[in-house]
Amino acid sequence: MSYTLYPAIDVRDGRVVRLRQGDYAQETRYADEPLAVASRYARDGADWLHLVDLDAARGGGYALGPLLAAIREQTGLRVQTGGGVRGEGDVEAILAAGAERVVVGSLAVREPRRVVDWIRDYGADCITVALDARQHADGRWLLPTAGWTQDSGAELNALLAQYADAGLCHLLCTDIARDGMLSGPNLDLYRRIVALAPGLRVQASGGVRDLADIAASRDAGCEGAVLGKALLDGRFGLAEAVAATRAARDDERTRPC
Predict the structure, then answer these.
(1) Tell me, what's the pLDDT at 150?
(2) Could you give the number of structural domains in the chain?
(3) H-helix segments, the chain
(4) Is the pLDDT of residue 146 over 70?
């Protein structure tokens, strides 16, 4: 099974930041400029980048087009990006700036029919739906919106089924409680998603802290993992993660039937 690493750059006020559990009041800022971080990831062997406009995630109006274009031109990385995608004009502008995939989060929860139309119109490989979830006390997985600050009332299972039936290919799912916490990905959540919608290519996001977590998410059926705080804090290097992922893939190919 192919497996993709998505090093992440979250941008707020033009700076690389990480939030704890999506809380804008709990922000860590990093010294390097976003383009410099992207260039480093490219040198370390990344093929993809996950780029997020945190300012737009709350208020709309994706504004990272110039940065996206510079990353594509100077690094050659394939980019999936979002934050504040509210309409078809945003999708077209992001793709025109060089993105391979547009990540749609809040709108995918509030207006799934519109996003289903985009999957049909732009192609399933051009849209990544982000269904970021917080578990309720009764066990249900609910989907907040607007940078995880508003309760939408929507449930993961229902939207997951709707998008799977509509032909969605790429799903990014974050357990919000683990985002930025370095507590390990929620493997039970990903096994549940893969069992409910086996045709989706699922990206694990939130909590990845080491190479063992990457391997565990792969074993849980994920197609890839978004790597954020652990990389920025130097808990492991992207180059070693890329090497380990390639070794696992090569080992899988050489196993006897």
Answers:
(1) 76
(2) 1
(3) 34-43, 54-59, 65-75, 88-96, 106-110, 112-122, 156-166, 187-196, 211-219, 229-232, 238-254
(4) yes
